[in-house]
Automatic annotation (TrEMBL):
PROSITE patterns: PROTEASOME_ALPHA_2 (PS51475). InterPro entries: Ntn_hydrolases_N, Proteasome_alpha, Proteasome_alpha-type, Proteasome_asu_bac, Proteasome_sua/b. Pathway: Protein degradation; proteasomal Pup-dependent pathway. It is found in: Cytoplasm. The 20S proteasome core is composed of 14 alpha and 14 beta subunits that assemble into four stacked heptameric rings, resulting in a barrel-shaped structure. The two inner rings, each composed of seven catalytic beta subunits, are sandwiched by two outer rings, each composed of seven alpha subunits. The catalytic chamber with the active sites is on the inside of the barrel. Has a gated structure, the ends of the cylinder being occluded by the N-termini of the alpha-subunits. Is capped by the proteasome-associated ATPase, ARC. GO terms for cellular component: proteasome complex. GO terms for molecular function: hydrolase activity. Component of the proteasome core, a large protease complex with broad specificity involved in protein degradation. Its main location: cytoplasm. The formation of the proteasomal ATPase ARC-20S proteasome complex, likely via the docking of the C-termini of ARC into the intersubunit pockets in the alpha-rings, may trigger opening of the gate for substrate entry. Interconversion between the open-gate and close-gate conformations leads to a dynamic regulation of the 20S proteasome proteolysis activity. This is Proteasome subunit alpha. Keywords: Cytoplasm, Hydrolase, Proteasome.
């Protein structure tokens, strides 16, 4: 009788973590940055239908890198959780921290289960506050841990290099145009340090804008507005954007 093959729990977890990290790294990077009037989501995404960024609730946005079918299931679950909690209690009871806890439990359970493979996803849950001090950004890696981020965060692809670049250049009180340009500069840097050009049509951009009069603060930025933000200075562009709305 042959001896059963044995793998220590530590090695099994390390192998699962390495498997998930490699899957996430194969995807394109995305960044989430705070700016003066809210939070901006920026990523390279040639698809116009398969979004990396989505609205979860009034003031809460969702960003994900990795396998689309896996993070789409998580997004749908988050929307259902938010709708049910807002309907049962109050809309103000739906928070990014509560949603991050739900995602952490789901990802942690899947990661530690030997019956299925870990999810190859990394999530960002962000909530815009009444003031910049009230903004919340949570990063959730594949294992279900929660990281409270401030200022900027990058996930997917070469996230470590992009995060280092953003940490050195991101400043509080940046305009939307300044934050967007910084995000694009960070995403366009290859691992060997060279700079490439990412055309506007390959960018997916969304914001949680605290200045919007509507209860729902999530908005996608596309077309001519995105082009102007990339080309002109922040003050004049934001003035034009407010006039359009």
């Amino acid at each position: 009788m042959s001896t059963p093959f044995y793998v220590s729990p530590q090695q099994a977890m390390a192998d699962r973590a390495e498997y998930a990290r490699k899957g996430i790294a194969r995807g394109r990077s995305l960044v989430v940055l705070q700016y003066a009037d809210g939070i901006v989501f920026v990523g390279e995404n040639p698809s116009r239908a398969l979004h990396k960024f989505s609205e979860i609730y009034d003031r809460i946005g969702f960003a994900a890198a990795g396998k689309y079918n896996e993070y789409e299931n998580l997004r749908i679950g988050g929307v259902r959780y938010a709708d049910l909690r807002g309907y049962t209690y109050d809309r103000d009871d739906v928070t990014a921290r509560g949603l991050a806890n739900v995602y952490a439990q789901t990802l942690g359970t899947i990661f530690s289960s030997a019956a299925e493979k870990p999810y190859e996803v990394e999530l960002v849950v962000a909530e815009v506050g009444e003031t910049p001090e009230g903004d919340q950004i949570y990063r959730l890696p594949h294992d279900g841990s929660i990281v409270d981020e401030h200022g900027s965060v990058a996930v997917g692809g070469n996230a470590e290099q992009i995060s280092s670049y953003l940490d050195q250049r991101h400043q509080d009180g940046m305009s939307l145009a300044e934050a967007l340009k910084l995000a694009v500069q960070a995403l366009s840097r290859d691992t060997n340090g060279t700079q490439r050009e990412i055309p506007a049509e390959r960018l997916e951009v969304a914001v949680l804008d605290r200045t919007r009069p509507q209860q729902r603060k999530f908005k996608r930025i596309v077309g001519r507005q995105l082009g102007r933000l990339l080309e002109t200075d922040g003050a004049s562009t934001e003035a034009e954007s407010s006039e359009e709305e």
